[in-house]
Amino acid sequence: MLTNNSSSTSCVQVSRDLQQQLVLLRLSLDSPALQFPEIWLRDNCQCNVCYMQQTRSRLPHGWNYLDPTVRLLQLSWCTERKSLQIVWSDGHKSSYALSWLKERDFSHANRARYLRDSYRPEQRLWCGKEFQLIQREFLYDDLLHNDETLLHWLHHLAVYGLALVRQAPLEANVLRDLCNRVGFMRSTTYGDEWSVKAQPGASNYAYLAEPLPLHTDMPYFEYKPSITLLHTLQQSDSPGGWNLLSDAFYVAELLRQRYPGAFKVLSETPVDWADIGSEKHLKFHNIWRAPVINLDANGRYVRINHSIPQRDSHFSVPAEQVRPWYEAMALFIRLANEQACTFKTTPGDVLTFDNVRMVHGRTGYDDTDQNVRHIVGAFLDWDIAYSRWRVLKTDLGHYNK
After folding, report:
1. Is the pLDDT of residue 179 over 80?
2. Contact, 339 vs 251, CB < 8 A?
3. Is 75 left (phi over 0), alpha (psi -120 to 50) or beta?
4. What three-state secondary structure class fits 35?
5. Which secondary-structure segment (H or E) carries 165?
6. Taking every annotated instance into account, which residue ranges of this chain make up the domain Gamma-butyrobetaine hydroxylase-like N-terminal (predicted)?
7. Per mean pLDDT, which range of 123-137, 210-224, 261-275, 362-376 is the poorest?
8. Domain extents for the chain?
9. CA 258/CA 174 separation, integer angstroms
10. Mean pLDDT for the chain?
């Protein structure tokens, strides 16, 4: 390793890797060096000219000026302030506190820790037979009044995609109060909340008593609601009305491992998702095009789209791609049903699940005046839920544990 401008004081040693243009900070002789790209250090100067503590952000004077030719001239360590000191070729001087640097070390282990503990919890995929092992129940009153319970619920929902809330009152404001504990409801073309019960002239397939196949809600939105909450007010006494849920990320992983051709088709072929209708005098025509399996730049699962009623008859792909897609989709549906867990909620239950990950449905049921099934639904967004999760972790001191 090439180094110069090396400084060592009280076991803290600073040096440079000239080839990689890194600043290295070693806290003890036997510890790995903390790594910081020099250009990143200049961009993240913490002085009052470059950074505003009140907003925790860079000041705007440098937004139109980013000079990658600036070089590090002098490097030293201040023992008294426990800070890294740098003089730059543009004449600027920077100081970085040790605590701030340790949180932002570019080592693989520290980046992985940040993504797991501060960005989002690591998801754990599960198959249908593992449902009894991963399911957790939370009391509604505890969620409203205990921050530790609220944090635990959000964490479990993020990791496993599913959690059941028990003993909620049979009142109209239950979901709103629960959403307000997190942040706020996500409104859609169907309103803030909606009632799921059999009704004549239904504008949505879910409002029928027929079996509801596995699906995700609202795939026709580019920014679709990401957490579904279903509050059971009345449950059918007929043999039907059982919930079906399957971890579609687990199903996608089965495809990736066992049927890579089908996985490629479902993760690359865009599908037209649409919803045309009206609700409370609001007419709508929503369309979004995206594959069934959505991946990020690193190949990780970020979203599943699947709803047979909302898959448009328009299929805007070359004709030769159509049959391979149907064959791959038939395999996905079969695996999703094979991996589904089943249970039946009771009045006072609030079923919560990750709508970008889980596919859900229910069995059909008998619906009469004396045998009514009534579910109230609402949505949260993960952006709001993850924000609340991070705030709770900070307020409750979990980052220091």
Report:
1. yes
2. yes
3. beta
4. strand
5. strand 162-166
6. 30-101
7. 362-376
8. 7-112, 128-400
9. 43
10. 91
How far apart, in whole angstroms, are the C-alpha atoms of residue 113 and residue 54? Answer: 26
* Fold observed for domain 128-400: Double-stranded beta-helix (3.60.130)
Beta-carbon contacts of 293 under 8 Å, excluding residues fewer than 6 positions away, are 252, 255, 263, 266, 267, 301, 304
User: In this predicted model, which residue has the larger pLDDT, 4 or 193?
Assistant: 193
H/E element holding 148?
helix 147-160
Beta bridge partners of 358: 247
DSSP 91: S
Quote the CA–CA distance of 166 and 329 in Å, as a whole number.
35
CATH class of 7-112: alpha beta
End-to-end Cα spacing for the chain = 35
Helix (H, G, I), strand (E, B) or coil at 38: helix
Which tens digit of pLDDT belongs to each residue from 189-199?
Answer: 999 998 877 55
- Asked if the model's pLDDT at residue 317 lies above 80, the reply is yes
Identify which of 314, 204, 336 has the alpha carbon closest to the alpha carbon of residue 266. 336
Q: Extract the tokens encoding 222.
A: 């580019």
Q: Which of 322, 314, 309, 254 is nearest to 289 (CA)?
A: 314
| Residues whose CB is less than 8 angstroms from the CB of residue 269 and which lie 6 or more positions away in sequence, other chains included | 291, 292, 317, 321, 324, 325
Tokens 């008294």: give the residue.
80
Helix (H, G, I), strand (E, B) or coil at 394: helix
pLDDT digits (tens, 9 = 90+) for 66-87: 788 999 999 999 999 999 999 9
Distance, in Å, from the CA atom of 198 to the CA atom of 203, rounded to the nearest integer, reads: 11
**Three-state SS at 295:** strand
> What is the DSSP annotation of 115-147?
IIIII-PPP----GGGHHHH--EEEHHHHHH-H
Cβ pair 271, 289 in contact under 8 A: yes
Tell me the two tokens of residue 75. Answer: 């490097």
Encoding tokens for residue 87?
A: 């003089």
Distance separating alpha carbons of residues 76 and 86, to the nearest angstrom:
7
106: nearest Cα among 159, 156, 33 = 33
Identity (one letter) of the amino acid at 349?
A: D
Residue pair 165/352 in contact (Cβ under 8 Å)? The answer is yes
**Judging by beta carbons within 10 Å of its beta carbon (0-12, 13-18, 19+), is residue 385 exposed, middle or buried?**
buried
Claim: this prediction has a pTM higher than 0.70: yes
**Running DSSP on this structure, what letter comes out for residue 187?**
P
Which of helix, strand or coil describes residue 332? helix
